[in-house]
Design a protein that fits this description.
It is built from 16 helices and no strands. With 444 residues, the protein is mainly alpha-helical.
Length: 444
């Protein structure tokens, strides 16, 4: 048994959560760095260029969500099977999950035929659309490698290869930082250069991860012959993967709705909101990364029927999640001007972005509780409630809130919609967890 599996089974819980969570945080942050770095360098090309990648952000969020659907669902299922010492089934699930991810990476290429319509729907103005097209065409092609890479990042984690998962993403992110200025400015490729840099970096990350299985370095072995489409494989993957994918899906929906409302106030508002979304998105990745490490721990111990470790780790993780959320909220508010100035020298964009940053950060700390609570519900089999709450923050509750806020408060309402939604979602989730499920022995 690997040291990571032993740590999950009987090691110190806090040490296990840090050991699983920290590399996953770094891994997800490096995914965010791709968009963050692109934004930083593209912003130097002007407000319209910044608006172009802001418009594409919902698409960039949605498509890799497919990878998280299979990666998170497959990883959690594999962790449960390993906890139950069923290596044979775990290998079938592993091979099938990789196969599904590669297939969907190819299928999303169909969107290339509808890019103008998609980008217009996302809120691209006539001035922004040509730049958005130039950037997105290359980015969609890169999804052939990006979707399997993100899925593999989660799968190798399931058997304890945390360092490999982290290294693959760090190498890709560092390469992206190097290539971005070279391709955008030195080689004069402009906004297209940012997309090419991202595509090359994602291919490298994919190559590192897939080699882990190709060269037999893994505990579980990948085989094309073991790729199957069976209910016993798909249902457990989808039960956890779909609700987690719903987070990305509705995040994409919320970004689209927000961009469409922002577009009515001009390209400067779209650019400002785009900057804030990427900054807050990095904080979201940090908290989500920890929750995914927690997910691996809980899935393994739930599979091993060790409910005491499940309950203890959940209480610790909720406290840590809230503390992390508070710290990130304070950093975003306290350094908002410095952060925004790094992305734009347009005074109108800066003024709007500072307001939007405060609005998006004031209640952000609640996400620390939400992310842990939702993963907990999914891991213990409360799939319906987990799905509903995962859909609430940026979907079921967010959409009517932003429509109402825009109607009554205009641009300011658009900026504050997410914060109001966070408060409502957290209150409902807290009531559900601590009052409804309190009487069920298997829950906290």
């Amino acid at each position: 048994m690997s040291s990571k599996l032993e740590l999950m089974r009987s090691g110190d819980i806090k040490k296990a959560l840090i050991s699983l969570g920290l590399p996953t945080i770094i891994g997800l942050l490096t995914i965010g760095i791709y968009n963050f770095v692109d934004s930083y360098f593209v912003a130097k090309l002007g407000t319209e260029a910044m608006g172009a990648i802001s418009i594409t952000y919902p698409l960039i969020t949605l498509i890799p969500g497919i990878a998280l659907l299979f990666g998170n669902g497959g990883s959690a299922f594999i962790s449960k099977l390993l906890g139950a010492d069923d290596h044979e089934k775990a290998e079938v699930v592993l091979s099938s999950t990789i196969g599904y991810s590669i297939l969907f990476g190819l299928l999303v290429q169909v969107s290339l035929f509808f890019l103008p319509q998609i980008l217009t729907f996302l809120g691209a103005s006539k001035n922004v659309l040509p730049l958005a097209m130039e950037y997105t065409k290359v980015l969609v092609l890169s999804f052939i490698f990006h979707i399997p890479a993100v899925s593999l990042m989660n799968l190798v984690r399931a058997e304890g290869a945390i360092a490999l998962s982290t290294a693959s993403q760090l190498i890709g992110a560092i390469l992206n930082i190097i290539l971005d200025p070279l391709l955008i400015f030195t080689f004069g490729m402009g906004i297209k250069g940012a997309a090419v840099a991202t595509g090359i970096s994602q291919f490298v990350s994919f190559s590192i991860l897939i080699s882990y299985y190709i060269f037999d370095k893994s505990i579980l072995k990948f085989s094309i012959k073991k790729i199957k489409i069976y209910k016993w494989i798909l249902i457990p993957i989808l039960q956890i993967g779909v609700p987690l994918f719903a987070i990305n899906l509705f995040q994409s929906v919320s970004l689209t709705v927000a961009n469409r409302f922002a577009a009515s106030y001009g390209d400067t508002t779209v650019a400002a909101l785009g900057i804030v979304n990427r900054v807050v998105g990095m904080s979201t990745f940090a908290i989500t990364g920890f929750s995914r490490g927690y997910q691996t721990f809980v899935s393994y111990n739930f599979g091993a029927n060790n409910m005491k470790r499940v309950k203890d780790s959940t209480r610790i993780s909720i406290i840590w999640g809230l503390a992390g959320g508070i710290i990130l909220s304070l950093v975003q508010i306290g350094f908002s001007s410095n952060i925004i100035n790094a992305f734009s020298d347009n005074n109108i964009v800066i003024t709007k972005a500072v307001e939007a940053m405060f609005a998006g950060s004031i209640f952000f700390f609640t996400y620390g509780f939400q992310s842990i609570a939702i993963v907990y519900l999914l891991c213990i089999g409360a799939n319906t409630s987990g799905f509903l709450f995962s859909s609430a923050r940026q979907g079921i509750i967010f959409v009517p809130i932003i429509i109402a806020m825009n109607h009554f408060f205009g641009q300011t309402g658009v900026f504050y919609a997410q914060g109001i939604t966070d408060l409502i979602t957290t209150a409902l989730l807290a009531v559900f967890l601590f009052f409804v499920t309190r009487n069920q022995k298997e829950l906290i």
